Amino acid sequence: MAQKLLVVRNDKIGDFMLAWPALACLKQASPAPHVTVLVPAYTAPLANACPWVDEVIIDPG
To answer: Quick check: 36 and 6 in contact, CB under 8 A?
Structure first.
């Protein structure tokens, strides 16, 4: 069974960009996990563009 990870980044856009290397390291794990991120709506377009994110959930609060 594939591993699933939820990464919660409810901070600003720049902080999410700083998390990209960590997301890349997570995806390089063997076997590669399914990576979901929980982000604010203003960060969602950037999260959707991230090649290491499989799924984006918008934080409602």
So the answer is: yes
Domain boundaries, position 20: 4-58
How many separate domains does the chain show?
Answer: 1
What is the pTM assigned to this prediction? 0.88
Residue bearing tokens 């890349």: 24
Angle at 15 between CA 9 and CA 16, to 5 degrees: 55
Q: What is the pLDDT along the chain (61 residues), one digit of tens a residue?
A: 679 999 999 889 999 999 999 999 998 887 889 999 999 999 999 999 999 999 999 999 8
Contacts of 5 (CB under 8 A, 6+ apart): 26, 33, 34, 35, 36
Scan for tokens 């997570």, then name that residue: 26
